[in-house]
Specification:
Elements lengths: L1 E12 L5 H6 L1 E11 L15 H12 L6 H15 L5 E9 L9 E7 L1
Antiparallel strand pairs: 1-2, 2-3, 3-4
Helix pairs in contact: 2-3
Length: 115
């Protein structure tokens, strides 16, 4: 098996449990990992792998829809990736919310899901 990753996709998005978070927005970082079959890379054709641009486009679309929970964002991204690439057995997605509204200084919270 091989892993293809698109790490560190940065978005300004409007997710959060509190209305103020959904109005003001915040910084998010998304990582996507894709488990590919062993035969990937045996050809030099883009059609034999997943296009990074497509992964980024799907991620950007999901991040543009406001949600209350980053857990929901993560599930939506997994579902969108599975729908676009049904031949892929496994995806792993990490959604990180920078500077969440918590008492004290907190760099980030994140959720990571596989499926």
């Amino acid at each position: 098996m091989a892993t293809l990753a698109v790490e560190g996709m940065h978005f300004y998005a409007f997710h959060g449990y509190y209305e103020s978070e959904r109005k003001v927005g915040g910084q998010y970082t998304v990582d996507v990992y894709v488990t590919l079959p062993d035969n990937v890379g045996r050809s030099d054709e883009l059609s034999t792998t997943l296009n990074y641009e497509t992964i980024h486009s799907i991620t950007r679309e999901v991040m543009s829809v406001s949600s209350h929970l980053i857990e929901h964002v993560c599930q939506e991204l997994l579902a969108s990736l599975r729908n676009k690439f049904p031949e892929i057995e496994k995806f792993k997605v990490k959604v990180k919310k920078h500077h969440p509204p918590l008492p004290g200084e907190v760099d980030a919270t994140f959720i990571e899901m596989e499926g």
